[in-house]
Every structure is written in C-alpha cells, then in structure tokens.
C-alpha cells in the first residue's frame, strides 16, 4: 500500500494525533474504533476462552494511500496470543485491498461455529 519505514503503524491506522501519517479515511475512523471495541467486548463477555488463530473479526474500510488515493481494504484480525485466563494480549492482522467502491464500513465476526454479520 505504499507504506514503508514503519509508517504503517498502530498509531497511523488509528489516526493518532502524534502519528506522522493518518491512514484511515476520517469518515471511517469512528466506525473502525467503535467496531474494534464492540467486537472485543462481545468476545470477552460471551466466550469462556477465545481460541487463538481460529475465530476472526473482519472490517472493510477505506484507507488513504501514500500517494493520496483512496483504497478499500479488508482487515481480518485473529487473536495471536492469549494469557493464562484466555484474554487476548496480541493479534495478527491480515490486510487485503478489495475491489469494491462501496462507501460503507462493513463488519463480520467469523467463528468456528457460525458467522455473525
């Protein structure tokens, strides 16, 4: 996506005030942050233990590429590590550019049992 030298960082993808680059399209940022929180809250309150690298959460949103163009991307997040109590402490994200010009943020939660959209 045109990012190198560690510019595509967690502060950048959350448009943090101190980040040198703001990656997420501003209209999509609030949705991304809200859904990240809602999904984590749902998993923490409805699962005895979160299985690592099995269940995933997907959000499709728009990012601003380094050249200023807008790309629609899908980020699929897997919990990579959990502590002894089963709570997530790190995650693995897979980013894909998707060929869809829809202006909407879409979210889905994929589990081994069923898919919730």
Description:
By secondary structure, the chain is an alpha+beta fold. It has one domain. The chain has 2 helices and 5 strands, in the order H-H-E-E-E-E-E. The chain has a 5-stranded antiparallel beta sheet with strand order 3-2-1-4-5, covered by helices on one side.
Strand order of the largest sheet: 3-2-1-4-5
Number of helices: 2
Largest sheet: 5 strands, antiparallel
Rg: 15 Å
| Percent helix | 10-25%
Query: Uncertain regions: pLDDT < 50 for 5+ in a row?
Result: 113-117
Measured between the Cα atoms of the first and last residue, the distance is 27 Å
The total tally of domains equals: 1
Short description:
The chain is an alpha+beta fold and 117 residues long. 21% of the residues lie in helices and 33% in strands.
Topology:
Elements: H1 10-13, H2 26-46, E1 56-64, E2 70-82, E3 88-97, E4 106-110, E5 115-116
Antiparallel strand pairs: 1-2, 1-4, 2-3, 4-5
List keywords for this structure.
117 residues; alpha+beta; 5 strands
């Amino acid at each position: 996506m045109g990012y190198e030298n560690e510019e595509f960082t967690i502060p950048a993808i959350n448009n943090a005030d101190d980040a040198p680059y703001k990656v997420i399209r501003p209209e999509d940022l609030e949705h991304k942050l809200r859904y990240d929180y809602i999904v984590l809250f749902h998993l923490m309150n409805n699962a005895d233990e979160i299985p690592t690298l099995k269940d995933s959460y997907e959000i499709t949103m728009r990012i601003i590429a380094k050249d200023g163009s807008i790309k629609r991307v899908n980020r699929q997040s897997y919990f990579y590590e959990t502590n002894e109590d089963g709570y997530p402490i790190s995650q693995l994200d897979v980013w894909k550019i998707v060929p869809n010009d829809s202006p909407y943020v879409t979210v889905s939660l994929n589990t081994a049992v069923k898919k919730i959209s």
